Amino acid sequence: MMYVGLDYHKRYSVATKMGEDGEVLEQVRLLNDAPCLLEFLSGLPPDTKIALEATGSWYWFYELLEDRGTELHLAHPLRTRAIAEARIKTDRVDSRILAHLLRTDLLPAAYIPPRAVRDVRETLRYRASLISLRTQVKNKVHAILSKNGIRPRYKDLFGKGSLRQLRALELRPAYAEELRGYLRLAEALQRLIAEVDARVEEIAKDDPRAMLLTTIPGIGYYSALLITSEIGDIGRFPSARKLCSYAGLVPRVRSSGGRTHYGPITKQGSKYLRWIMVELSPHFVRGSSRMERLYRRVCLRHGKNTARVAVAREMLKVIYYMLRDERPFYED
Q1: CATH code assigned to 3-103
Q2: In the prediction, which pLDDT does 87 show?
Q3: N or C: fewer beta carbons within 10 Å in the chain?
Q4: What is the arithmetic mean of pLDDT over 216-233?
Q5: DSSP letter for each residue of 42-76
Q6: What is the three-state SS of 207-222?
Q7: How many C-beta atoms lie closer than 10 Å to residue 330's C-beta?
Q8: For the chain, which residues make up each domain, given as ranges?
Q9: pLDDT for residue 85
Q10: Three-state DSSP class for residue 168
């Protein structure tokens, strides 16, 4: 059997071929285009295993190998300490260490969601990017109004009443042209968001797990689909605490000399799952008397932000049992 460690970059990759005895057979530099990579793969034995670090551009290469049926292992970047702690860090050293960890069965594997889940994630993150762009446009419009000493009368800056007010403003030509452009951009973003919202609703209604989560007060189609797509297979988490750790919602722990200190949350793992749970925490507080009691108790001692995180963590535990047992939400 052959083991291949691949140090993957945007434009090129460095591959190390390693035998079962740990001997480095070959190290090559490859351009990241399909013909070059496929030519390299065609020269490998059928039972070859490949290790690839989970960087930002691993999707394309993984799907190239997935279609070919090659066995690929994705390495968790934070846990591949052998690379991070190496005194000499080069592309060749990194690829060799990946091959060695794979050969010795010490490679810290990262979760690879199925292609259907990856596609759902892309749709949800596309919507999040549109919302971010709309927020940027709102901030630009607020800046124009501030420069002209105008305070908007409406809370929703891009609502119907507010848009009528903005279009009726008499500003100097430079500001008027700028405002018209941003309003046209806002209208285009609104249409795109409406289109993707319809698509999200369609996907969520076909997903029993997402519909299960909509029984929780405050969770809609987008939130439910985002949570289920980020979690993936609930069976890969042996406990609710492991799921909370994956979301980065557990505190850092330092224990030495019989003393244990708990710090802020780790913020490691899925940033999207952590974000949506914290964003939904006010809805959880309003919709559940148990969460309201937890929020008030933690808020008195540690403040509002810590209380929101505590509610987010507790609700994620509830979601874990809902998905594991396939049951709807109910108040204890």
Answers
A1: 3.30.420.40
A2: 65
A3: C
A4: 94
A5: HTS-TT-EEEEE--TTHHHHHHHHHHHT-EEEEEP
A6: CHHHHHHCCCCCCCHH
A7: 9
A8: 3-103, 115-206, 232-325
A9: 62
A10: coil
